[in-house]
Each structure stands twice: as structure tokens, then as C-alpha cells.
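User: I'm curious whether this sequence folds into something compact or stays loose and floppy. Could you predict its structure so I can see for myself?
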Amino acid sequence: MTAASTQRRLARILAMVPWVLAHPYPMVSEVMERFGYRSEAELAKDLSLLFVCGVPGYGPGDLMVAFIDDDRVILDMADYFSRHLRLTPREALGLLSAGMAVAGTSLGSAALTRAVEKLARAVFPDASQAIGVELPTEPEHLDALQRAAGERLVVNITYLSVGTNRTTSRAIEPLILSASMGRWYLSARCRLADDRRTFRVDRIRSLEETTETFVPPSDSDRPTIGFTPSADAIYAELALGKGARWVAEYYPVDVIRDRGSEMLVRFAMSDARVAARLLVRLGGKARLVEGEEVERELNRLRREILARYGED
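Assistant: Here's the prediction. I'll summarize afterward.
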């Protein structure tokens, strides 16, 4: 299991636990549908992970009981998860700042505005306007992308790559728009790459709307944690020996094949130097199977290291 899939699994478990506690002994089918479990076995595996987890003290009254009983999900001895979250001042301020940032954009909603107002009164009860949060001016094509994502319409774009500074034309299926660190990003299925990609909206040089519709993937509206390759991502295939298997847990990889003694992975990166430096670090524990850009950077890095030590 990769780091990204582990994080997604953890996020789902943390969302499921308080809901099950608020709705005691729900039907298995209801929990599966609400939290996107593909099988009862998958749900049972997560409940087994929760079983006898708990808080410090780890006595009989501190550990959870979680299992499936006939057609019901049983979760007991976990009252500490049912209590309201108590934020530290720093956490509350961070949450308020993020909420105000989104509420001030076209992605805001009436519900979010009310939540921000309530949180602001709790954090700053004596101040009507204690802080202000503003994002930069929204990029040119944001409204059109929001409309296309909402109506599931294919759009044609001309995109300027951040890494290579090359311009390409491609048809995309817009899925989710988000703002981070003052910039807007679009998660979309790129038909040129035949895969999901992340685009920086301000790098879209032109946009043509079409009337063609598309069917989004089943998880397109679910927030994900982890790395989504950018539109100009670089890929390489690495063979990881036993001493390098940890790479699959810490880097954005897809496992192609695992024979026990060696794991073949597809590695996504924004810069070929990332994989090249990793391969130098791993030495004989890993090898490059495929990836011209990484191979060129790896050879350059090796020459540089040899020159430093005065070797040809």
C-alpha cells in the first residue's frame, strides 16, 4: 500500500468513526454506501484495524471494540471520538483563515459563510472584524472551468507547462477546482495523457468550451490527500530491491508488479533530479528500468560525483 492510499484509507476511517458513533449500530450496507466501500471485506478490514485501538492508559475501558455482527456495524468503547473537537488557538485561527479565504471566492457558499461567522465570534468575541483574508485576483478562465466542471462538459485548452515552458493543446474533462498558496488549480482527466492531471489555472493560455459531455469517475467529488501528477509530470519505472521497498510508502508511485524480492513501480515527479538523486542514494538496492529523462540526469549526476573525487 502506497503512502497516498494509506492516507486516503486513514481519512475515510476518521470520517466513518464519529458518524457510526452518532448513528449507533448502522446497517453494513448504509456504511458501505456512505463511505464508498466496495465490499464488506474491505469494511471489515478497516474495523479490524480499529479493534483494540484507543487512548493512553490502554486499559479495557480505553480500547475500542469494532466489528460486523450479521448486517450491523458495531463500534463501542469509543466515546472520546463522539465528543466535540477542542481546537487550540493556533488551530482555530488557521481554520478561520482558510474558511475566510474560500468564502471570499466564487467557491464560497451560504453555509460556509455562516460557519465562518460563528467561528469568528468564538475566536474573537469582542471584535467585529479582527482579520481579513484575500486571495489574488481570480484567473481569466476560472468561471468557464467552474461551469464546465458543474455541467460535466469537455473543454479544449492551450496550456503552458510550468516545468518545460512548452505549450500544448489538449482536451480535458474538468473535475475539481481548488485554491492553494494563492493559486488556483484544476484536477481534470487529460485526454492527451489519458490520465488524471493537475493544471495551474493561470497557465491556461486559451480555452474553448464544447457541448460534449463526459461521465466523471465515481470518486471525482471526493477530496483526496496526497500527490496528483501535474500536467507536465515526468515518469520513470524503478525496480526496488528488498532494501528499497520503503520508497513505495514515501513517494508517489504505482506498484506495477511485486515479486517479493523485487518490486517494479511507476514513479511520478515534477523534476527528473528527484528520482536520479534517489537512485544514487539507494545504490545497488534499486535500478532504473525505464525513463529517458531520469537516465540522462542520473548519468550527469554520476559524472559530477566522479569528477568531485577526481575519477574518470
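Summary: The first strand starts at residue 65 and ends at 69. The chain has nine helices and eleven strands.
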